[in-house]
Amino acid sequence: MTYFELWKWGEKRLADAGVADASLDARYLLLEAFEMDMAHFLLKEQEQVPATEGRTREYSGAIQARAARVPLQYLTGKQDFMGLTFHVDERVLIPRQDTETLVELVLKENTDKKARILDLCTGSGCIAVSLAVLGGYRKVDAVDISEDALAAAEENGTRLGGKVRFLKSDLFSALDPEKKYDIITSNPPYIPTEVLNGLEPEVKDYEPRMALDGSEDGLAFYRRIAVAAPAFLRAGGRIYLEIGYDQGAAVEELLRNNGFARTRVVKDAAGRDRVVCAELPGIGE
């Protein structure tokens, strides 16, 4: 069997299993198994795969796992985000391109490197680490209730650089309200439970449910954040929350009802509502 034929074999297995991007995923897994880039694959695609090549078994196993709907990123162990490559596995939610909208907003609107940033529900650390590395902020704290997620986030922080302090905390529970932040960010669980149960197997069966389930209406974490955040923000501080495409108005209202002003909804690259931003009024406002 040639490398090309091996790729097509994997593609058919994935297509038969209902994997949407069967051809692309099969190729990614082949490149990963054989430690090749695309250029070398194109040069070697008509060559015979050595009969004793143990990497063929590795590829076959990866195809079998992907056919069982294990997410591609958990099989390759990586996901690109903001130009950085994060390690991901079953401990953390896979970073999505949608979340880059939030990071880009913070980088654009907050140029003071001395700004103190808090990232809630940090997961893989993709928001916190990206801000520390790309923004050069000197003080970034990142919290999560999951010890497994924090371990993964710390691994990413160590490997990618940037100064981030990781803490186990149920939102603000382990933090000192006397130490105010300039910016709070979060991509909290926001999928309604009923909707989550109907999602594709890659999400509902493999990604950590606690990072996805936003309770009955998807707003449970926003309620908690909106109530508690003012005590941890300085006057004039800003908050940036990722949301589901239909949650903008509800999250804006929650923030306004808890003292925030200048609320707005920002769309992602696909034109969907993605981030709610707000400010805590300054003294005298």
UniProtKB/TrEMBL annotation:
Residues 101-190 form the Methyltransferase small domain. Residues 5-77 form the Release factor glutamine methyltransferase N-terminal domain. Its EC number is 2.1.1.297. S-adenosyl-L-methionine binds at D144, N187. It holds the Pfam family MTS. GO terms for molecular function: peptide chain release factor N(5)-glutamine methyltransferase activity. It is an enzyme of class 2 (transferase). GO terms for biological process: methylation. Transmembrane segments: none annotated. Keywords: Methyltransferase, S-adenosyl-L-methionine, Transferase. The keyword Kinase does not apply. It catalyses: L-glutaminyl-[peptide chain release factor] + S-adenosyl-L-methionine = N(5)-methyl-L-glutaminyl-[peptide chain release factor] + S-adenosyl-L-homocysteine + H(+). Belongs to the protein N5-glutamine methyltransferase family. PrmC subfamily. Methylates the class 1 translation termination release factors RF1/PrfA and RF2/PrfB on the glutamine residue of the universally conserved GGQ motif. This is Release factor glutamine methyltransferase. The gene is prmC.
